Amino acid sequence: MSHRIFQLLVVLLLAAMPCSLHAQDSKEQMASYYFQNKEYDKAIELYEPLYERTQNLFYYQMLLQCYTETAHYKEAEKLVERRIKKQPKALQLMVDLGMLHSRQGNEKKARRAFDDAIDKIGHDSKQINDLAVAFENANHNEYAIRTYLKAREQMKNPYLYVMELATLYEKSGDYEKMMNEYFELLDNSPKSIGSIQIALQRALNETASTHLADGLRKTLIARIRQHPDNNSYLEMMIWFSLQQHDFEFALTQAKAVDARFPEQGTSQVFRVAQIAENNEAYDIAEKAYNHIVAKGNENPYYFDSRVGLLNVRYKQLNQDHAVDPRELQTLKDAYDQALNELGKEPKTIPLMRNYSRLLAYNPSSSQQSVDDLQKAADLLYDIIDMPRISNGTLAEVKLELGDLLLFAGETWDAALLYGQVEKANKNDVVGAMAKFKNAKLSYYSNDFQWAKSQLDVLRASTSKLIANDAMELSLLISDNMEEDSTYEMLSYYAAADLMIYRNQLDSAWTLLDNITQRSLSHALFDEVLVQKARIRMKQGRYQEADTLLQFVVDHYGSDILADDALFMLAELNEQQLGNADKARQCYERLILDYPSSLYVDRARKRYRK
Question: What is the DSSP secondary-structure string of 55-111?
Fold first, then answer.
């Protein structure tokens, strides 16, 4: 053959290939079309030559399904058996054969095929995984389990396929065997505790019944008794208790770890303290922090626990309710003592900020109020003067100083500080907060139109909290600007709002009374009721607050403050009136009737508690 003729043949062959490939693609598309429309006989006519020509796995699977759907069982068996002959190590094909027998009602032959597949398992991990997955896909988890167990036996390694087996036991509802798999692994490999916790957390989240949680608790208790010196089981029990929000039991276990393994235990107690604090289990958090503080200042967690302890006690002192003067003074003394011991430095900034708020907004007496206010301001100035504090912290503290100046009646100075922070943080959340505070100043000053224009800009804020607050105040202004062109009622309300902020509660009540006495009905009436409830809560007159909030919930359920009133009512009954049933009903109603409310997450936590 001459070189020129050879070249011509190559060119002709290459020219023909795209046509051949195009024809195959066209046939595959047509076969897929027939399959999707359940025209299986037509699909078979196309898949048979495609498979014969290519021996492609996909065409095999499609052809097998078409044969099965049309009850062409003999053809299906021949297809599978021929493929087994060509690929004897592909044990998953035995599952296909067994499923064909099962489809024809011959369970004995099906089981024989499955058993044969398991008997032929070797040391090839891919072969083992493919077979187990095939059994899972065929809804034969019991055979998938046998596959992994046989592989363990073959390889003489009892710790192989722990996660796979545990998952299969979980699917089968055999939680005892599932946990045994995890804990046998934990005994052999303590470092696997993290992956075991992740797997168990997923299982707990996906299991609707309490059987798994109850069984896990019992198993852990039994293992701790059997292996009292095994730190891993104590750590697992702490983790599980935290998952179940059983913070008291978690703390008990953390203390047990601390007693046996002091070098690790304190970190566990500190972790329980932080998680309990974040979940508002303040009594448990306080016990945990106290436990660490009692160990002395040589402990590496001493400093953070001192700060954490005061943070918890600060949060426990609900400033929306009446405050016991003796408790208040005790807490102030504790802050003084802590700052004297720990010093004023960047690490104690959270402590200084809380102490400043405590002093400013909770004077021990009318005589001390001016001194407390000055001391509160000095603490914030001390932070501002600190070198090397972050710009974000600096901006936040300046905003707090502005709030304090507003509280003291220095409105102009407050506006200047808000303006500075807004200008320096234009594209930041803290800048948006500064803008909101300045808009609220305009609202307090009766410049309602300017305030509304600024609030409407903030309604697009990236911070959901700021956007929501801006929307509420904007709607309050717009609703009452339209209703009352003189803004007289709105002016009364804004003045009362500022007086409540400044703890001038009796004067605020009088102004709010003016609104209800001057009109038989007004758009502000629900806002007035909520503000009056806030006043009564601060005065410790909780039953009156309950009546006011209940009236808002019953008669203004579709207004913008309905979810605020419902959450306040729930907290009031839970924390002050001791009416757990009513609190639970309020939380439940909030979750169901106001799903977009900012209070939903907090309500859900409280409802579970």
Answer: --HHHHHHHHHHHHHTT-HHHHHHHHHHHHHH-TT-THHHHHHHHHHHHTT-HHHHH
Q: How far apart are CA 495 and CA 379, in angstroms?
A: 29
**Spatial separation of the C-alpha atoms in residues 563 and 579, rounded to whole Å:** 19
Specify burial of residue 310 (Cβ count, 10 A radius: 0-12, 13-18, 19+). Answer: buried
Query: CA-to-CA distance for 402 and 400, rounded, in angstroms?
Result: 5
Averaged confidence pLDDT in the chain: 88
Name 478's Cβ contacts closer than 8 Å, sequence gap at least 6.
Answer: 452
Taking the C-alpha atoms of residue 182 and residue 163, their distance in angstroms, rounded to an integer, is 8
Q: Is the dihedral of CA 382, 384, 390, 396 positive or negative?
A: positive
| pLDDT given for residue 558 in this prediction | 87
Give residue 423's pLDDT. Answer: 94
What does the alpha-carbon distance between residue 160 and residue 164 come to, in Å, rounded to a whole number?
9
Query: Which CATH code for domain 484-608?
Result: 1.25.40.10
Burial of 70 (0-12, 13-18, 19+ CB in 10 A): middle
**pLDDT score of 242 more than 80:** yes
pLDDT at 21 over 50: no
The percent of the chain in helix, strand and coil, each rounded to the nearest 5, is 80, 0, 20
User: Residues 6 or more apart from 336 whose CB is under 8 A from it?
Assistant: none
Domain-wise residue ranges, the chain: 1-60, 484-608
Instruction: Give 241-249 contacts, CB < 8 A, sequence gap 24+.
Output: 242/272, 242/275, 243/201, 243/204, 244/213, 244/217, 245/279, 245/281, 245/608, 245/609, 247/272, 247/275, 247/276, 247/279, 247/281, 247/284, 247/285, 248/284
Yes or no: say if 230 and 252 are a contact pair by the CB < 8 Å rule: no
Q: Is the pLDDT of residue 25 over 80?
A: no
- pLDDT at site 460: 80
